[in-house]
Design brief:
By secondary structure, the protein is α+β, with helices and mostly antiparallel strands. Helix content is 52%, strand content 14%. It is built from twelve helices and eleven strands. The strands form three sheets. Strands 6-8-9-11-10 form a five-stranded mixed sheet, covered by helices on one side. Strands 1-4-3-2 form a four-stranded antiparallel sheet. A hairpin with a 5-residue loop joins strand 2 and strand 3. Helix 2 runs antiparallel to helix 6, helix 8 packs antiparallel against helix 9 and helix 10 packs parallel to helix 11. The longest helix has 57 residues. It is rod-shaped and about 155 Å long. The two termini are 78 Å apart. This is histidine kinase. Its main location: membrane. It comes from Paenibacillus brevis. Pfam families: HAMP, HATPase_c, HisKA. It is found in: Cell membrane.
Length: 522
């Protein structure tokens, strides 16, 4: 299989795998939509059923109000006997005695109700009076006595027209409404009318079925439109994945587009770009560090090889018989001692640099810089020999420093000036001043040959020596003094720089943060 086809098939499988972002977004969106539609359908069903029940209750109340007025009058017991004749049960008022006059009853008129309805009378003892039904009616359900009492009480207080749901003797569910037969002021008889809820539920279920069908159609149609939109939305991520797959240590200059129109993707692209920049800088620093390390090892090996070669040569001379000649023996031992001192100094410098690179922290204490230089003046005069040394120190400049490390900085700079000035005509000037009230400037200036401009950027590099202006003589160092000085100054939060013109000497300038000073800034 070709690599391109294999990569495409792999992406296709990954795009629709259960763990892919596309599949998860699609499935979770569908689940949320299905739950929302189910919730909406349930609420719609409940609201629709409640509306239908309330509307039907109003209709039944209107039917009760449409009953003959005699049913609500003083002679309502006569009409109740009509219920006797129509329902097959006698209702005899306390003041009446048989036989009853048919003229009292009047003309018998039939009552017409909606199909699947029931009607009954409830007396003061909350008993149904011979409930029955006509050919198209339903048997009237009987509620508990406490429920009837509660209905009477609510009618008396609030004129409530709520409905009740109950089941009749055949198990049919009915919606019941109630109304006083003698008007709101009398409750010796109450009318109960009910209707089957089956047609109402059928309407509600039909509406729910229609809603579910339309929801499924909408989900299917939405899915057809959602997939292309989802694919287009995830295209920036796919592009980022493709770019990441193409990245390696040699292609860290690639960057992601941060103007894709999606804020989250744009922020992700910016984060990736920042990461790539840091990686690129890290790889570049690592490459430079390797180059420096290789150069450092080569220079250190060269510096160590020179004294070792000299010592080896002197030992061979001694083994050939020079040890028996006192003059040659003393000269060889003296030269070997000098070379050993040079190796010791080189190793010590290397150890100092390694320590500063590994643990740059120093132990600081409040130090008076001017007093520190004054204490070193005898030692500096001795190192200068016949050279002229002058001092210009501002008083009472205090800083948080490591005294021994700052002494090493001054000695390294002074020794560097001694190496590159004439033993008799050379002059070295050391000055200490305040800059801006928060910084102190230590300057060591000599009148040596100076440094050529092309060498200035490299004077603080390890083992670096200019080939013309500052060639190492026999008393010269290995090119580590200025590198050590720079590391110490930077550990103290300061800066070091060099100012030189060929033929006009060189000035090394150290700037250190200070605590206070008693002199104004210049």
């Amino acid at each position: 299989m070709k690599p391109g086809i294999h990569r495409w098939s792999k992406r296709l499988r990954n795009s629709f795998s259960p763990s892919s972002l596309r599949t998860q977004l699609l499935s979770r969106s569908l689940i949320i939509l299905a739950v929302l539609l189910l919730l909406i359908g349930t609420v719609q069903f409940i609201v629709m059923k409640t509306f239908l029940y309330s509307n039907q209750a109003e209709t039944l109340q209107s039917q009760i109000r449409g009953l003959p007025k005699e049913l609500l009058g003083e002679n309502s017991w006569i009409i109740r006997n009509r219920f006797k004749n129509e329902m097959g049960t006698a209702f005899v008022p306390p003041s009446a005695s048989p036989p009853y006059d048919e003229s009292e009853v009047g003309e018998r008129r039939p009552f017409f109700f909606l199909p699947d309805t029931s009607i009954a009378l409830i007396n003061v003892e909350n008993e149904l009076i011979n409930p029955s039904s006509n050919e198209s009616g339903l048997p009237a359900p009987q509620l508990a006595s406490e429920q009837y009492s509660k209905i009477r009480k609510e009618w008396d207080i609030q004129n409530v027209r709520a409905y009740q749901i109950a089941h009749d003797q055949n198990g049919n569910e009915q919606l019941l409404v109630f109304r006083p037969a003698d008007g709101p002021g009398g409750w010796d008889l109450m009318i109960q009318m009910g209707i089957s809820t089956a047609p109402l539920k059928a309407i509600a279920w039909r509406q729910l079925t229609i809603f579910i069908s339309l929801s499924l159609i909408a989900l299917g149609a939405g899915l057809m439109f959602y997939l292309p939109i989802l694919r287009k939305t995830l295209n920036p991520l796919n592009q980022m994945v493709q770019t990441v797959e193409e990245l390696d240590a040699g292609k860290l200059d690639r960057r992601f587009d941060t103007s894709l129109g999606q804020s989250e993707i744009d922020r992700l692209a910016e984060s990736f770009n920042g990461m790539l920049e840091r990686l690129e800088v890290s790889f570049e620093n690592e490459r430079e560090a390797k180059e420096h390390m290789q150069r450092f090892i080569a220079d250190a090996s060269h510096e160590l090889r020179t004294p070792l070669t000299s010592i080896h040569g002197f030992l061979e001379v001694l083994l050939r018989g020079a040890a028996e000649k006192p003059e040659q023996l003393n000269a060889a031992l003296g030269s070997m001692l000098g070379e050993a001192k040079r190796m010791k100094k080189l190793v010590e410098d290397l150890l100092i640099l390694a320590k500063l690179d590994r643990t740059p922290a120093v132990s600081r204490s409040e130090t008076s810089l001017d007093t520190l230089i004054e204490e070193m003046e005898p030692q500096l005069q001795m190192l200068a020999g016949e050279r002229k040394v002058t001092f210009s120190l501002a008083p009472h400049i205090r800083a948080m420093t490591d005294r021994d490390r700052i002494k090493q900085v001054i000695l390294n700079l002074f020794h560097n000036a001694v190496q590159h000035t004439d033993p008799e005509l050379g002059t070295i000037h050391i000055s200490l001043a305040v800059l801006g009230g928060n910084w102190a400037e230590l300057r060591v200036k000599d009148n040596g040959p100076g440094i050529a401009p092309e060498h200035l950027p490299h004077v603080f590099e390890r083992f670096y020596r200019s080939e013309v202006s500052r060639v190492r003589n026999r008393q010269g160092g290995a090119g580590l003094g200025l590198a050590i000085t720079q590391s110490i100054v930077e550990v103290h939060g300061g800066q070091i720089e060099v100012d030189s013109t060929p033929g006009d000497g060189a000035a090394f300038i150290v700037k250190l943060p200070i605590l206070s000073a008693d002199v104004p800034s210049n």
